[in-house]
Amino acid sequence: MDWSHVTYLRVLIRPVLIASITIFICVFWIQSNSSDIDIKSAQHGHQLAVQSVQLCPLISPRLIGWTNLSLEAMSAISKEDEGIVELRMKQSGVKPGGRYEPSRCQSRHKVAIIVPVRNRTEHLAVFLRYMHPFLQRQQLSYAIFVVEQSERSPFNRGMLMNIGFKEAQLSQEEYQCVILHDVDMLPEHDGNPYTCPEDGKPRQMAFSVDHWNNYNSVSWNFLGAVTAMSANDFQRINGYSNAFWGWGGEDDQLFQRTKSQNLTVVRAFDGTVSQVVHYKTMSHPRATPNPDRMSVINEGWKKFQTDGLVDLRYTRLSLKLEPLCTRIVVDIQPYNITT
Ligand code: UDP
Ligand code: MN
Q: Which residues contact residue 143 at a Cβ distance below 8 angstroms, ignoring those fewer than 6 apart?
């Protein structure tokens, strides 16, 4: 055997082997990292795409103005086939739970509309069918929360509003404001802003209503029917009182609560009454006022800090993401309010 030949081969093969292993490792490293780089650049591109969705314009180009809400028009809305309405709403972008955000621009406002109800099925159908397109024309990001009270106790509008606020928070969406909305009130003109008011300035929306006073403005102390408030302000005033069972009083006390925190109640367009701020009501039998409401109002001053969102107690019987709203059914009953 020629040993010098074997040694010669060894000397030749070793560097070739080392070089090929090194090349293999390099190629593998570059490949695995380049796919990482691709993912990162794609993610970056997506971020840019999200960021580049423009804020919606200050005045929506989709507004159409005044809508005729005659009895015939409302009856036509209520008679439309439920399946067809739901399909149309879905196509327009309404998500289960009655949630919506504009697809082509980023809304400047994220609004939770809270509607307290009991035995107002027809009003609710018209309300939802009318309000979705209305709110969409304003390019708002919004959800409609319907809070329905079980039969057990007298109706408690304030407590239902508090529950709606809590449930909107529990939904993990960051709503900037709430619009506390009676089910039987319809804004006639989509120039009536359902945007979020700034902190410190709750906006009284219903002050020019057809049947109240033939559209004449109501008192500046009135804070009922339809009211918009920033989420910060609603929290700051501890929401509504939970102590008003039956008709009346909770809205008067809401006004007192805003005053106690030095909030300034404003109206759209400096309170000017024009067709833009008109509301149409849907009729119903008049409720019997709660005879105790004046004493609850008078007692209430001492309880702003303890009676409201902080001591809210309720049993949630169900929560359903329906095609046009998030419906929360609750059982509530009176309890002693700590002073
Ligand atoms: N409401 C209800 N069922 C009732 C009582 C009141 O759904 O039995 C709700 C509904 O949203 C209504 C609001 O509470 O619009 C205010 O009550 P109501 O309409 O009786 O008061 P009004 O302002 O007409 O005096
Ligand atoms: Mn009413």
A: 97, 98, 99, 100, 111, 112, 113, 168, 171, 173, 175, 326
Q: Which of 117, 251, 284 to mutate to test the pocket of ligand 1 (most atoms within 8 A of CB)?
A: 117
pLDDT digits (tens, 9 = 90+) for 185-206: 999 999 999 999 999 999 999 9
Pick the ligand that lies closest to the CA of residue 127. 1
pLDDT at 11: 52
Ligand nearest to the CA of 287: 1
Angle 116-122-128 (CA atoms, 0-180°, nearest 5)?
Answer: 60
Please give the structure tokens belonging to residue 301: 């001053």
DSSP type of residue 95: B
**CATH 3.20.20.70 given to domain 71-331:** no
- The Cα 310–Cα 241 span in angstroms is 10
3-class DSSP state for residue 142? strand
Which residue's alpha carbon is at the smallest distance from atom 12 of ligand 1? Answer: 182
Q: In this structure, are residues 189 and 66 in contact, taking their beta carbons and an 8 Å threshold? A: yes
Kindly give the distance from the C-alpha atom of residue 145 to the centroid of ligand 1, in angstroms, as a whole number: 16
CA of 24 to the centre of ligand 2 (A): 79
Contact between residue 307 and residue 300 where contact means Cβ atoms under 8 Å apart: yes
CA dist 131 and 185 (Å) reads 10
Ion ligand 2: residue ranges with CB closer than 5 A: 184
Residue 40 has pLDDT above 50, yes or no: no
Residues with CB under 6 A from ligand 1: 116-120, 155, 157, 182-184, 225, 247, 287
pLDDT of residue 272: 86
Least confident range from 50-54, 154-158, 323-327, 328-332: namely 50-54
User: How big is the CA angle at 163 (ends 180 and 90), to the nearest 5 degrees?
Assistant: 65
Counted residue by residue, the chain has a size of 339
Atom 18 of ligand 1: nearest residue by CA position: 287
Q: Which of 119, 183, 227, 329 for mutating ligand 1's site (highest number of atoms within 8 Å of CB)?
A: 183
